[in-house]
User: What shape does this take?
Amino acid sequence: MIEIHDLHKYFGSLHVLKGIDLNVEKGEVLSVIGASGSGKSTLLYCINGLEPVQQGKVVVDGTDVHAKGTDINKLRQQLGMVFQQWNSFPHLTALENVALAPKIVKGKSKAEAREIAAQQLKHVGLGDKLDVYPSALSGGQQQRLAIARALAMEPEYMLFDEATSALDPELVGEVLETMRMLAEEGMTMICVTHEMGFARDVSDRVAFFHQGVMEEIGPPEQIFGNPQSEHTQKFLANVR
Amino acid sequence: MFDYNFHWRPVMKSLPDLLEAAMLTLQVAVLAMILGIVIGLCLALIRLHMRGPLLWLASTWVELARNTPALFQLFFFGFGLGSFGLHLSPYMIVLMGLTFNCAGYLAENFRGGFQAIPDTQIRASRSLGMNAWQAYTRIVIPQVFRIVYHPITNQMVWAVLMSSLGMLVGFRELSGETQFFASRTFRIFEYFAVTAVIYYVIVKLILGASRLLATRLFRY
Assistant: This one.
């Protein structure tokens, strides 16, 4: 379970997150929507400790992410992350991309790591691309590679930071399909997204962020069908 | 108007000596490059990540190495240190001068290489649970290496050619040896012509080896 208590985040004098309270249960799929700059992505970076926080805390399965003495590298193995700019490692083949972390972080043998990597790549539909370098993959394929890479660490949670925003329109579908598959398998997911269709169909809850505040959270039917906050109504009217 | 008669025989007779000197040239250049790469990498990392006296030292090193004549740098390690009572062997003078110069140039190449790797590569590595050291050695450095590979090759060529300045501090590498024989026989043109060919062949071999290695190393 991910528990977020009164989380504040500043970039210099810029107040990006203004007291977020949020719990995400095991098995839940939460979509986070909102305009650019509303703090959605920053929230994800605070959850896995890539960004320090100034106030409040994030607790993952009982461990305070930002506390001194927390083994953040160990904790991050529980928190798979997929980025907007997929960030595949260009100097490694697809298989090596996925096998690297299990080998050097988890200490798996080379054969074992490659086995896991091949499995995960097959899982996301890249079983025929094992020895290909990322430069020879499309954006959608690279993003699925990034998903496989995160999954290879066998995380309890997956964080998606606008995983489809940088893709050509015709490539969005294959990545969403992969995310949908994970959701159906019971993965706990927090998806920052601009894909309203995905948020509506796949998530258990949808959170709407506005200027660093979580304005509204609830089941998709409520957020999309009967939004309470004025900002949510305005945002949804504009993206439709 | 040309009444000069070429005499190649003395050159051919001393060819084994010249080739031996060429090996010395290659040796000192390779050593200087290895040291230069290690030091240059440190200088680049200091300039990217550190403050205070170390930053000042690294910046001064790079500035002096790049913006003063290489010959003067050699003279510093020879006559400069010599006037303070620190007398180095000609071999050490050339090795240190070359290393100083190469480290300065390579530091800037490395700095550019590091800056070309987006931060997001490190973020992605860290998000997988890698520590900073793993992210650097497994993800960043291999990519930087490819970026600086050809500049390093150029620097290697430069190190071989620059080592010829060694003859001015009494080092009997290829040029020094050539000068020695030329002044004994007065066949100056012949000697330096042959030596030029030897330098050319060395450089061509370095470039060829580098290209061959590149096709093996970089398949992406």
Remarks:
- Chain B touches chain A at residues 120-121, 123-131, 134, 138-139, 142-143, 146, 219-220 (CB under 8 Å).
- The radius of gyration of chain B is 21 Å.
- The domain at 19-217 of chain B is CATH 1.10.3720.10 (MetI-like fold).
